[in-house]
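Quick check before the chapter quiz. The format below is the same one you will see on the exam, so make sure you can read both the input and the output lines.
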Amino acid sequence: MKITVVGAGGIGGVIGGYLARNGEDITLVDVSEEHVGKMRLAGLKIQGNVESFTVPVSAMTMKELLESRTTLELVFLCVKAQHTRQAVNMFKHLLTPDSAVVSFQNGLCEQEIAALIGEERTIGCFVNLFSDYLEPGVVQYGGVGSLSIGELGGVVTPRVEEIVQRLAAWGEAKSTDNIWGYLWGKLGYAAVLSATALTNETIADLLESERDRRMLLDLASEVLAVAHVKKIKPAGFDDWEPSLYYPVETRNWQAIHRQMDQLIRRLRSYTKTRSGIWRDLAVRKRKTEVPYQFSPVIQEGEALGIDMTLTKSLVRMISEVEDGKREQSLSNLEELHLIHQKKHG
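Here is the expected output.
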């Protein structure tokens, strides 16, 4: 099976690096000529908290891929969510009727991919890796997480099982018949991570505070409420358990605090202590995935009559940081607390 990884950053670099080390027929594609050039010259370096290694890889730019007119068999799409449409439109003419694209992305990108190439050629993927692109040729793997693959229609097929088997070179990938549950469960978690990126504090440090926990879980619950109305059951992963946080009326705070303490212990074991969203804002000074991820959720939630006040405020504040109109600081979290208080009384 020929695998093409489009987007060789944090997620694509880690997955691609491990599969290349295992001898898979894999090509890493990236828009950065410098990154591609470094990988060709010196290999791809995975800098991890469990192990570090450098592996020779086949790498090319997107321009080179398009000029090669290579038929694509299996694509691992690992670009930022906001670049989904552009990326798929660039390579979709290289797909055959039997090709498949797996979305190793944040948000609900599978919906957009399926609209462009058809549901039959789109495979869902939930991935929770604490990884980052550090510099040309170097990717940080800051904490082992989870990965599940599933068909959008909710069945486990032979092609899904084959992909899972190949991903064993990375770690414990799983097949699932509830891919939408994982994607919505992660969206709730992503809301929390996005809020922590409004500050310069670590994720674990902010979750230590019971006051912050309550506000952040109410933020996540707006997202989980949309899933609930859509009759999707959000799935838990890596010490994040949506069923404890929503419905709000059934919360057991003793159980929640135990679970959150466990999550904090996991987060403190990672070398990557802040989110990729924080890194985009604080280090790379570039647009994040946040507006793209949550604007459709907000629209759908409001259409269903759900109060999305906290999520809307989060997107607005992240956008203001992106535009240079707001600095990252704890005062942003205090502003969310005031909005939370006004909403909940």
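If your answer matched, good. The chain has two domains: 3-177, 182-344.
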